[in-house]
Amino acid sequence: MAEFFSEGQIAQFRELFDRFDRNGDGHITAEELKCVLKSLGQKVKTKICKNMILQYDKNKTKRMEFKEFLDMMANVFQYHLSHPESRSATTEEDLAATKRLEDLFDSLDVDESGFIDAEEIIKLTEKLGEKMTLEEVRELISQVDKDGDGKVNKDEFKRLMASK
Fold it and tell me: Which stretches within the chain are classed as H helix?
């Protein structure tokens, strides 16, 4: 999995690994791993970190070596690349963009139900001078409606807007 990263990224991960390898023994314990993940914006419990170490601990030391750490990070990055909605907003710019999307969603959710439904979309398109049939609106909704409820929730809306 280390081939997933460039040499520069591997060097950055080495720095990160070394920073959290408090005693410099070349291993990260569950408590140290928790600190690493926290620095990357992830909140996890020590028990979860122990399980993560066991999952990647090829030599059964109950501690994570650098290669095992790289394997874990490659899996984390692959997951986030394939699930963009799972990424947490961490920068001020990310937070501001998320807030703008949520505000836009709220303005479109006229009845404040927490969903944008077909009726709200039809009214919006009429205000914009467009006419859409109920069938056209349902087709539009079905393209983003991941949970199949016939409405667009805030997460589906953010996913749609992030893909644009």
Answer: 7-20, 30-39, 46-56, 66-82, 92-108, 118-127, 134-144, 154-162
Q: Which residues pair with 67 in a beta bridge?
A: none
- 63 within 8 A of 53, measured Cβ to Cβ: yes
| CB-count exposure of residue 41 (10 Å: 0-12, 13-18, 19+) | exposed
129: its two tokens: 């001078």
Distances in whole angstroms, Cα of residue 159 to Cα of each of 81, 94, 106, 111, 139:
13, 14, 15, 21, 17
pLDDT digits (tens, 9 = 90+) for 19-53: 888 889 999 898 887 877 776 667 778 888 888 88
Beta bridge partners of 153: 115
Helix, strand, coil % over all residues of the chain, rounded to 5: 65, 5, 30
**Residue recorded with tokens 């807030």:** 99
DSSP 115: E
Q: β-strands 152-153, 115-116: how paired?
A: antiparallel
